[in-house]
Amino acid sequence: LSLSLVASEIQIKGGYDFGRNQINGIGFTEFNAGFDFGNGPTAGAEYIFDNQGEFEWGIGAEYKFDKKIKVDGESYKIMRQIPVYALGKFNLITTKKGNDVLYVLGRAGVALNESKVNGVKYDNGLYVAGGLGTEMGPVSLEAIYERAATPFTNARGFRTNDYQESFGLRLGLRLGNLVNDRTAKVTTVEKIVYVDKIVKVPGETVVT
C-alpha cells in the first residue's frame, strides 16, 4: 500500500439522509414493526491511501446528526450514530483528464450508536453501505444506501436486534491527488551486454 502524500486523497463530506428507518428485530410485525426517524444531515471525512487506477481503497468516518422520532406531533431525540468504515471504489468510467465520472462504492465497518433516551442502551453494530458516485475536479457527488445494526436493551432488560436503513446524497470536497491516471505504465529497463574484445599483437591474437 502506498502511503505517499502525492498519491493520496482526502475528502471532506457533507450530506443529507432523505430516509432513516428503524426496523424492529423482535419479529412482531403487528407490533411496532419499525420507526421512521425522518431525515437529517451528515458530516464526514475520508482518506484514500491506495489508488490503483481501476480500484481505490481508504478509510472514513461519518457523523449523523441526532435521529428523531415524532410522537403526537412532538419531536424527540432518539439516538446519535457515527459509522467508522473501510471503503473501496471501483471506477467504471474515467475521462482522459483523470476524472472518475462513474464509480461504484462500498463501505464496511462499525456503527457507534449512542442512546438519547433514558433507560435505553444502544450497542454498536455492523455497518455496510453501497452506492454510485461521480467526480468532476475537486468535487464528488454520491448516492448511497446504508444499513447499520442498532441492537438495544430497554429499562426492563429486553433486548432487540434492530437495524436501520437509510439513503441519501453526499457532496465531497477533494484535496490532494485529484487525477486518476489509468494509462498503461511503460518501464524502460537497461540491459548490459558483455562482448569479447579481440586484441591483435604482432605474431598472436588475444581474446579478452
Structure description:
The two termini are 48 Å apart. With 208 residues, this protein is mostly beta strands. A hairpin with a 2-residue loop joins strand 4 and strand 5 (74-94). 0% of the residues lie in helices and 65% in strands. It has strands at 9-23, 34-36, 40-51, 55-71, 74-94, 100-115, 121-122, 125-136, 139-149, 152-153, 159-160, 163-176, 198-201, 204-207.
Chain-wise SSE layout:
Elements: E1 9-23, E2 34-36, E3 40-51, E4 55-71, E5 74-94, E6 100-115, E7 121-122, E8 125-136, E9 139-149, E10 152-153, E11 159-160, E12 163-176, E13 198-201, E14 204-207
Antiparallel strand pairs: 1-2, 1-3, 1-12, 3-4, 4-5, 5-6, 6-8, 7-10, 8-9, 9-12, 10-11, 13-14
Q: Which terms would index this structure?
A:
eight-stranded antiparallel barrel, elongated, 65% strand, 208 residues, three-stranded antiparallel β-sheet, mainly beta, 14 strands
